[in-house]
Amino acid sequence: MLTCFLQDQIYSYLGNLQISKVVIASSGSLWKEHRTFALNKLRSFGFGKRSIETNILQEVEELLKFIGEQNSKAFDINDVLHACVSNVTCSIVFGKQFSHTDPAFLKILDMFQENLQVSHGAAVMTWMPFLKYLPYDFFKFKKTFGNIKTIESFLNTIIDEHWKTYQDDNMRDYIDTFIAERKRRGEDKAGTFTDYQLTRTILEFFLAGTETTTATIRWAIVYLIRNPDIQTRMRKEIESLVGSSQLPRMQHRQELPYTEAVLTETQRCGDIVPLSLFHGVDKEVFLKDSEYHKTPSLHQI
Ligand code: HEM
């Protein structure tokens, strides 16, 4: 039986990025407990369901407004796309969406983006941890950590506000459900349901959810630009079903097979997370004709 067993040292790269010991970079009972909790609660706030549609449509409107304002001139869609996608995660985690001109929100988004760009430097630390003692910041290690600290303090402020305004009978968002779980367990039995763990989980949601979704949409745009005939056929299918005065919704999905196929094909060709996450086995395993030795890290290829 394959189990997710990831030893800490293998994850020192992710640890360098400070996303260790939560859902993505953990193992055993900690991983099971927080993965189950996170997926349950994300679903209860509409993740993958129609109930999140209003929040998504609000961001689509923002995106369309921005595109319209460019007056057919060339522009870079990345930042606005990143903000729109992040804001959907914000709606689940913080119970609110930020204004696209909110300086604190924009600063945090910049830091996430910057960390993604410089994170290969942190990867070097996995094999040569002593490099972090070098003067200057050749590998952008200090930069990466500095950004994470700022993002953490942004999250901690929001978590503190949630503690102050929390009400048992009004679960506003993911943070409230985490607080509720902690209260249910009692302070002395809170175990891993700490504020630290909550901050880490939220960081993981942004890291796991934002770049993946943004990259998928960017690929869809590239493919549609490069295949205008497919773009036209897809537009015709949408227009014939929902017209051009309203946005397509989840309820239309079943009746838009061509659009669905284009999006699925985008995910296949875009290959957003080609090696997926690390997985491993915690004991020798025989599966069909193959033998898997105990190993902390396996990549799917
Ligand atoms: C198009 C968008 C997305 C893609 C392509 C994607 C891709 C993936 C992949 C390949 C994995 C590893 C699965 C495995 O090997 O077991 C994964 C895991 C995960 N993703 Fe996503 N993801 C996307 C969106 C999101 C979003 C929006 C969130 C949350 C806000 C999210 C949260 C997670 C978490 C928490 C895990 C770890 C789950 C576990 O340990 O089993 N992802 N994702």
Automatic annotation (TrEMBL):
Lineage: Eukaryota, Metazoa, Spiralia, Lophotrochozoa, Mollusca
Family classification: Belongs to the cytochrome P450 family.
Database matches in Pfam families: p450
SUPFAM superfamilies named among the record's database cross-references: Cytochrome P450
Organism from which the protein derives: Tegillarca granosa
Signal peptide span: none
Organism superkingdom: Eukaryota
Coiled coil start-end: none
Gene3D superfamilies named in the record: Cytochrome P450
Matches recorded under InterPro entries: Cyt_P450, Cyt_P450_E_grp-I, Cyt_P450_sf, Cytochrome_P450_fam2
Protein name (record): Uncharacterized protein
PANTHER family for this protein: CYTOCHROME P450 306A1, CYTOCHROME P450 508A4-RELATED
Keywords tagged on the record: Iron, Metal-binding
Residue ranges of the TM segments: none
